[in-house]
């Protein structure tokens, strides 16, 4: 096979070039549509696509929030400031049905302007944290901040939160499983592009996950040496 790949030394990249490469390569990325509350009770809503789950016992999520581009070092985004101060936030799953509204909350609103008020986003009260949930989302996860990890040269910070309550629409949850297809989640690609679910491929799990769901060996216990 011919090695005709373009090789780029990452040490030579500035922030903008590195960002273009990493978000173009790591795709698709789920979108965390986060609601948070500032010290005056103002509700903020913003999307972040550098996000995933990182633990199951207890369930935990992590979202990377960078400093605002083009601003002095130390200027953090409203969501990051609110999470740091209150130690609470809600991750709402963005879907095809909410994509346009979610995308609009990504504007650079001034700190004194609430995106949910400006855009008329309906909310529901949370059960264990102060930030409210976005009513239009079929999955809402209330989180309490567990750890803050500053990454790299300080531009990016990872906020790790424990999910203390799940709120699931009966349209996508049958009491045991979340129907990811029915949820119709939206994902982020590089640049201005989003993606929906395409063709779905089914393969049995080859190592037994917690609960055994989808495992190729059925409900039989795995070998101890596996």
Textual characterization of the structure:
The protein is α+β, with helices and mostly antiparallel strands and 226 residues long. It is 15% helix and 30% strand. The chain contains 5 helices and 12 strands. 24% of the residues are buried. Its cofactor is FMN. Pfam families: Flavin_Reduct (PF01613). Residues 24-180 form the Flavin reductase like domain. InterPro entries: Flavin_Rdtase-like_dom (IPR002563), Split_barrel_FMN-bd (IPR012349).
Give a short summary of the structure.
Residues 205-226 are annotated as: Disordered. The protein has 226 residues and is α+β, with helices and mostly antiparallel strands. It is built from 5 helices and 12 strands.
């Amino acid at each position: 096979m011919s090695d005709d790949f373009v090789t780029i030394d990452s040490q030579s990249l500035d922030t903008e070039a590195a960002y273009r490469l990493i978000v173009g390569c790591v795709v698709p990325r789920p979108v965390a549509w986060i609601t948070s509350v500032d010290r005056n009770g103002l509700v903020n809503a913003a999307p972040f696509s550098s996000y995933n789950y990182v633990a199951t016992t207890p369930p935990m999520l992590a979202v990377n929030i960078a400093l605002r581009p083009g601003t002095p070092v130390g200027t953090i985004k409203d969501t990051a400031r609110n999470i740091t101060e209150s130690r609470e936030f809600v991750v709402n799953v963005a879907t095809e049905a909410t994509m346009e509204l979610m995308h609009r909350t990504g504007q650079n609103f001034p700190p004194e302007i609430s995106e949910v008020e400006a855009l008329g986003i309906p909310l529901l009260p949370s059960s264990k944290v102060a930030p409210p949930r976005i009513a239009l989302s079929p999955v809402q996860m209330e989180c309490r901040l567990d750890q803050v990890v500053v990454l790299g040269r300080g531009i990016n910070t990872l906020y790790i939160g424990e999910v203390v309550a799940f709120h699931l629409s009966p349209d996508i949850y049958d009491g045991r499983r979340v129907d990811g297809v029915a949820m119709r989640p939206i994902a982020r690609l590089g640049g201005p592009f989003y993606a929906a679910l395409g063709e779905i491929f089914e393969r049995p799990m080859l190592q037994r996950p917690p609960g055994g769901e989808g495992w190729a060996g059925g409900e039989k216990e795995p070998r101890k040496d596996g």
